[in-house]
Amino acid sequence: MLGMPLKKSYSTKKEEFEMNRRYFGTDGIRGKVGEPPITPDFMLRLGYSAGKVLAGVSPISSARPTILIGKDTRISGYMLEAALEAGFSAAGIDVMLAGPMPTPGIAYLTRALRLAAGIVISASHNPYYDNGIKFFSSHGNKLPDEIEYAIESQIKQPIICAPSERLGKAHRLDDAAGRYIEFCKSTFPAEFDLRGLKLVVDCANGAAYHIAPHVFHELGAEVISLGVTPNGLNINDGVGSAAPDMLVATVQANHADLGIALDGDSDRLKVVDAAGRLYNGDELLYVLLKDRIITHGSVPGAVGTLMTNLAVEVALQQLGIKFVRAPVGDRYILEQLRERGWQLGAEGSGHILSLDHHTTGDGIVSALLVLAAIKRSGQMLAQLLNGLILFPQMLINIHILPGADWQNNVAIRKAVEQAKSALGHSGRVLIRASGTEPLLRVMVEAQQLDKASAYAQAIAEVARGECGVV
């Protein structure tokens, strides 16, 4: 099973791999379709290389390893799926094809079916012309760094097709959606139901379009579906957690109790209440932690990221909950949770991890946990956030040139230091490269919005001049 020591000498220090990654980023491999590495020829090599590595770390068994492949609704998913399938077959690995399936659904099914690994073809919240590959281990976790390193190393080697009698076979997993729907429902407390609630469920024209509405309906809610007509090109287009305006309008127009926004692969969540107020991952983490105190008596700690609003950290300290910041990305939150033996973590974008319910972030499961907190407390979502007033944050994304050395740029450093000095202890400055897009993200947080905006604009202007795309 994955996580076991490698039979070959592929292991490397985590820091070394982080510096020498070529293809794997913080959330798998991602890019623009048709440009390396998101091309059919690379996916063929990736499937073959992953197959060879995964076969080498599976338990000794007469049965050949089996890989599960799912995807979101992008038109390019068909092409990439076929190329990966061919690569695995050439390596002598069997393949199960789940079709459109949320990322957390593939993580669950991989674990439940005792498979060697799971793969998701998705670029999450990105536009349709991007795509990517995410891997899950046999336990439903992100692949260990040493396995990713081994796959990258294997890609450099020639493809040597297995003999015909040892080629991998492929078949459809026809009941994938039904299995995952039942799993999601099982995470909602048996003593509660959703009768009497009117919910708008926005699936972003993505992987959960045929799953999420059924989960909430089968638990008793009246469901108004949004973003459930994918055509291969409209994923995340004006819908979903990254574009919630339509959800807000639909909630208010239909006098719904709540709106639930997922992203293209359904691992992110944002929530809208009846008044049209949008709640992000920082706020939802606070709600779940307060509920966890009710159900467990105390909570030892929680994990956020460098982007988590400072007000959350302060509010959790007042509740007696330790708070730790990880680098941005759910894999880093997961690392901290496991290291400390904690259960709950999140980032503002809507990745919420509850390790006593799932091994990875799951937008549908997270929504059910929020709904359970509302049911248990008898309060509205806004009431559950009493005691938390977020500091204003200004986030500016800048398209940067490939390979731009913004970290060592003197002018950018000077602008950042000037902002930090001016804000003192009443704010924060964070500048970082996106792990999934060619963007530099500039975030300034302050007690006053005008200060956050002014300093963010000042840093962004310098960064555009120094390394931005003209």
Automatic annotation (TrEMBL):
UniProt function note: Catalyzes the conversion of glucosamine-6-phosphate to glucosamine-1-phosphate.
Source organism of the structure: Candidatus Vallotiella hemipterorum
Entry's cofactor comment: Binds 1 Mg(2+) ion per subunit.
Record-listed Mg(2+) binding positions: S124, D263, D265, D267
Lineage of the species this protein comes from: Bacteria, Pseudomonadati, Pseudomonadota, Betaproteobacteria, Burkholderiales
One BP term from GO: UDP-N-acetylglucosamine biosynthetic process
Sample GO molecular function, one term: phosphomannomutase activity
Residue span(s) of domain Alpha-D-phosphohexomutase C-terminal: 396-461
CDD domains: GlmM
EC number: 5.4.2.10
PTM comment text: Activated by phosphorylation.
Protein's name in the database: Phosphoglucosamine mutase
